[in-house]
Amino acid sequence: MKNVESEILVEPKLLHGNGGRARSEKCVFTVDIEDWFHIPELPMALSVAEWDTLPSHVSGNFRAMLEIFAEKGVSVTCFFLGWVAQKFPELVKEAWSQGHEIASHGYAHTLVYQMTPEDFLVDISKAKNIIENITGAPVLGYRAPGFSVTDDTPWFFEKLAEAGYRFDSSIFPASRQYGGGLKTANFTPSVINTAYGRIAEFPMTVAHVMGRPICFFGGGYLRLFPYPLIKKMGMRVLDQGRPIIFYVHPREIDLHHPRIAMSSIRRFKSYVNLRTTRPKIEKILNDFSFTTFGKLIAESKVHGEH
Ligand SMILES: [Zn+2]
User: Fold this and answer.
1) Distance 18 CA to ligand 1 centre (A)
2) Cα of 229 to ligand 1 centre, how many Å?
3) pLDDT value at 22 more than 50
């Protein structure tokens, strides 16, 4: 991802409102809406044709999450897998009618670096069309499966813009054992210029611990670390003037979903502390203030069409 021209989207100082306290309105809570069998990069990864034969858990799990969001009065960003939106359009309709921001997680959960630029354009365009046909509104946001944007996918932002997307939250600015990760990426939101227009990029949030970037705000680490530590690291990020992007999956509040055969380390990372996810989500929604990507972009006044 070298040679990508970008500029800062959210000036750190702009986030400091009252006396340098930055703890208002600057977190985005995101959900990647997919099923329990959409875990990338497993040796026995299932094909799209096989997905239809498996017992789906996504509807119940996602609806349970919608209830939590409604109870807390928080609008979140929903990155729908196109396959899920096609199979369960009512989930998209429910989230949309409840005021959540609707975005795309691609169609077939294929990792970006496993696709050609042309395959990628087809996958993200298909998902965009499916979701737009359900809501009747443009889908502007994208998140890559497994944060699989790497140095091997320099065409990523251009293809996103070509498909009509305007913001992205796929960059994981730390190394990851599975999936993507970009060691040299920006830690703050920025605007990427491409031949097809501009993309506002919201990287996953990391806090530095002894110089090492660690994401406390989603995935295995959110489940593994105790909540007081997650909160402390979150406040540290906000004090630095950066928004926090939290991320969860519907399966993470489902203690009884079928398990997939995988190595013991991978199993630990995929399933550790599932019982803590729901209470942690509730505490996060209580303790932090939330906005959406669309609102952050509108407030920044630097995005392409503004
Ligand atoms: Zn995913």
Assistant:
1) 37
2) 25
3) no
